Task: inverse folding
């Protein structure tokens, strides 16, 4: 008989395991362990969502990102540190290997503290460029907080994204919400398709180094301005590991996470930094925007045999795929973003067929998409492939391999089923009937004798 205590423990373990699809172990790297008190609200929200937080400094010798080939942490949260390097246990190579192993990171920068060289090198691998001094201050003389930065204009007050870009999910859409970016550092983005800028600087903002460029900015040393500068960037590697770069670590502090701010010519309102921080960490730690393929089925139209290994050219085939999306603590039906399509390809070396899948059915936890189509007039080895790779969603690339054969000798249609053959068949049967009639006439028609009487043979 099973113990009730064991049953309760199993439920607790299942609840904890469900916090994130990538695991719940978080390493928080900060300059001093006492610094976590300044981020108590954000860190408390992470713990309330079931994450197990471990706090370490770069000077700690006990930090190990992996052991015996397995990750010791699932996620890393980097807060500003004053040291130039992160120590021998968090070198750029080790951090890249951590990402390759499926680990996720949140990198919070600051304009008052240069970023560690290890993080600068890691971000450069993803075409994220920081200033040469590894820090910089973004100011805006038109979009600042009149309550705290009336003179310096170094606290930016920006509207949160009010609508998702065309074809993208709305995970970070927060209409009517204001975000505060105190003393933020900007970064430039390359052309990598793995980058998604979540918040860009306004057109009137610019970046400079307060220590070296207080009197003026040399054009040769100018880093960036306007929408060249990204303040918050999401990075998703090809293995769906995630990195979030936040230009202002202060926006995550208790002082600012729910502070009242006032944009120029507006009344004071509470910032939405707390909700924004929740969505940032939720996305980075794979609590949202995670897709799962539950099943893929294909069969001859009208047949009950599922997933046969071989088809015939020009067969009518039905294809279905069941997909779910993880949303905080449960799997929900996946909804394709507006102005986007989920497609299926029937491909050999290149697609022979590419079709938009249609929603056929929705269950409590999944959406079933499908499409009926005719196989191409080409034999060989083919793949049913769903290659769905979109920003802010984990990548889906599923294949099912089948063989497609020629029509067998006894499967060709009979001549009388082909309308174009009817004239030829008519000619054949006309010839046969005419020949039979000729034979009949020749056999049953006697020749005429002399005098006009018929001959009946010799006496």
Result:
């Amino acid at each position: 008989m099973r113990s009730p205590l064991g049953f309760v423990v199993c439920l607790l373990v299942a609840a904890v395991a469900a916090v994130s699809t990538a695991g719940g172990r978080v390493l928080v790297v900060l300059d001093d362990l006492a610094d976590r008190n300044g981020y108590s609200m954000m860190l408390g929200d992470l713990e309330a969502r079931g994450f197990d937080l471990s706090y370490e400094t770069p000077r700690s010798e006990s930090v190990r990102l992996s052991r015996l080939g397995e990750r010791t942490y699932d996620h890393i949260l980097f807060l500003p540190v004053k040291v130039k390097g992160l120590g021998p246990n968090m070198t750029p190579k080790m951090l890249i290997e951590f990402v390759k192993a499926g680990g996720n990171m949140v990198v919070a920068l600051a304009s008052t503290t240069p970023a560690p060289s290890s993080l600068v090198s890691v971000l450069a691998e993803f075409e994220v460029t920081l200033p040469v001094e590894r820090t910089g201050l973004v100011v805006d003389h038109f979009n600042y907080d009149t309550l705290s930065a009336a003179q310096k204009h170094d606290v930016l007050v920006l509207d949160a994204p009010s609508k998702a870009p065309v074809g993208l999910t709305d995970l970070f859409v927060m209409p009517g919400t204001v975000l505060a970016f105190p003393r933020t550092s900007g970064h430039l983005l390359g052309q990598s398709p793995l980058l998604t800028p979540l918040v860009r600087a306004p057109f009137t903002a610019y970046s400079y180094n307060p220590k070296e460029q207080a009197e003026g900015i040399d054009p040769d040393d100018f880093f960036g301005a306007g929408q060249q500068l990204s303040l918050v960037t999401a990075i998703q590697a090809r293995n769906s590991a995630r990195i979030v770069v936040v230009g202002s670590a202060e926006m995550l502090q208790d002082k600012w996470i729910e502070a009242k701010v006032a944009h120029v010519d507006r009344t004071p309102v509470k910032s939405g930094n707390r909700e924004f921080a929740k969505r940032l960490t939720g996305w980075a730690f794979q609590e949202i925007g995670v897709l799962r393929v539950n099943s893929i089925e294909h069969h001859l139209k009208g047949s009950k045999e599922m997933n046969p290994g071989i088809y015939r050219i020009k067969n009518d085939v039905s294809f279905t795929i069941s997909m779910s999306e993880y949303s905080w603590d449960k799997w929900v039906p996946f909804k394709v973003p507006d102005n986007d399509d989920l497609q299926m390809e029937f491909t050999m070396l290149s697609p022979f067929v590419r079709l938009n899948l249609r929603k056929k059915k929705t269950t409590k936890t999944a959406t079933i998409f499908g499409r009926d189509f005719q196989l191409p007039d080409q034999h060989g080895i083919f793949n049913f492939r769903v290659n769905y790779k979109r920003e802010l969603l984990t990548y889906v690339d599923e294949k099912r391999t089948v063989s497609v054969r020629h029509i067998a000798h006894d499967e060709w249609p009979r001549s009388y089923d082909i309308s174009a053959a009817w004239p030829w068949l008519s000619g054949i049967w006309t010839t046969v009937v005419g020949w039979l009639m000729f034979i009949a006439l020749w056999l049953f028609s006697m020749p005429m004798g002399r005098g006009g009487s018929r001959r009946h043979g010799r006496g």
Q: What stands out?
A: Residues 7-18 have pLDDT under 50 and may be disordered. The chain has two domains: 15-286, 289-410.
